[in-house]
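Renewal narrative, Specific Aim 1. Our central claim is that a sequence can be written position by position from structural information alone. The example that follows is taken directly from our test logs and has not been curated for this report. It begins with the structure tokens describing the chain, in the order in which they were read.
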């Protein structure tokens, strides 16, 4: 495995919460787990010339080939030797549902060990965005989130994350998305899991996604967003990683009393600590921070909370993404009333804070994180 791929973000300290699940068998090593140098070393260890790794990289990252028969510059004997070792099949689609006229596709993937997780491809007039998972399940235990209620199964490997993006690009190339061929331009780590609880694998995936082809998929770092519920040490570590990705903080409440309930990790790192870490990222990178805020009826959508949030964010390089909650079946949590949503927006704008209400895609296909995977499991 690449040195970038690991299961822990920050070494635990006494009294610190740890979010790794039980020790499990690792996914098979894949070319996307490795740096360019590591790929060449791996191929040499198999008794072949190192340049064969470059050929495999071109097929995977540039041509997006997933069938060894479509690698004409490699003999059958070489394909039979190298492909199982360097390009093992990592993910099997279990269910793929489309909506929004075929512009939104949500896929449930099964990994080698039966773990299930999701990715979503969303086509807009000016871009194609992929929402990817970084874990199977999630250990953050946020009560309004289907993934959080399912618990954490395990961290995904770098390659399992990258393959979600590669599969989306293949679907576009093959005309399986409405509108014909296109290019994935934006990646958001907002699927299942807490990305910064799987820091090293996520960092490796960001590098594979953004490195120029054929080393990687060649997507601009400025088109990549990494979200977190507020793991402060990992935010600080990301700040020093020399990246220009956007940081998104899933805040959901401006006051510690409520956020302790909605985002339990807040009992470890409070609102002010999380925001200070985010402002540090902004100072280092010059990138605007996105504040994610799921509007929940009668819970966090009061006008006074909008004012409090506005005062916290005023004058900062920040944008608020208000998310109408997509309720999970049987949940007491539901989306805010339209008039409360409008007032929340108005109050934030009165403080000079940029705000938008997120376009809600995929409601009819279990669009909230974790809903479709849960439906498959049952």
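The sequence written for that structure reads:
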């Amino acid at each position: 495995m690449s040195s970038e791929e690991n299961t822990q973000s920050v070494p635990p300290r006494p009294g610190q919460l740890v979010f790794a699940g039980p020790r499990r068998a690792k996914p098979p090593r894949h070319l996307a787990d490795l740096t360019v140098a590591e790929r060449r070393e791996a191929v040499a260890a198999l008794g072949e010339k190192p340049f064969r790794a470059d050929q495999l990289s071109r097929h995977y990252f540039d041509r997006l080939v997933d069938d060894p028969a479509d690698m004409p510059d490699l003999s059958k004997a070489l394909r039979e030797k190298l492909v199982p070792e360097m390009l093992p099949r990592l993910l099997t689609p279990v269910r793929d549902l489309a909506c929004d006229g075929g512009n939104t596709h949500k896929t449930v993937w099964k990994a080698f060990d039966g773990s299930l997780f999701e990715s979503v491809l969303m086509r807009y007039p000016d871009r194609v965005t992929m929402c990817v998972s970084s874990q199977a399940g999630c250990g953050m235990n946020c009560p309004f989130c289907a993934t959080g209620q399912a618990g954490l199964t395990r961290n995904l490997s770098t390659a399992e994350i990258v393959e979600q993006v590669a599969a989306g690009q293949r679907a576009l190339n093959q005309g399986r998305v409405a509108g014909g061929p296109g290019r994935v331009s934006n990646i958001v780590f907002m699927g299942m899991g807490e990305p910064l609880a799987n820091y090293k694998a996520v960092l490796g995936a960001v590098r594979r996604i953004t490195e120029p082809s054929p080393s990687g998929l060649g997507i601009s770092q400025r088109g990549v967003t990494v979200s977190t519920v507020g793991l402060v040490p990992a935010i600080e570590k990301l700040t020093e990683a020399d990246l220009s990705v956007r940081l998104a903080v899933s805040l959901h409440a401006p006051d510690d009393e409520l956020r302790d309930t909605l985002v339990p990790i807040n009992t470890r790192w409070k609102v002010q600590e999380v925001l200070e870490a985010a402002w540090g990222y902004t100072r280092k990178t010059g990138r605007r921070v996105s504040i994610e805020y799921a509007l929940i009826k009668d819970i966090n959508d009061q006008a006074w909370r909008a004012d409090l949030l506005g005062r916290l964010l005023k004058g900062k390089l920040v944008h608020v993404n208000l998310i109408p909650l997509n309720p999970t079946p049987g949940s007491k949590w539901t989306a805010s009333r339209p008039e409360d949503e409008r007032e929340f927006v108005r109050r934030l704008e009165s403080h000079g804070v940029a705000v938008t209400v997120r376009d809600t895609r995929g409601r009819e296909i279990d669009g909230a994180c974790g809903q479709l995977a849960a439906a498959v499991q049952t």
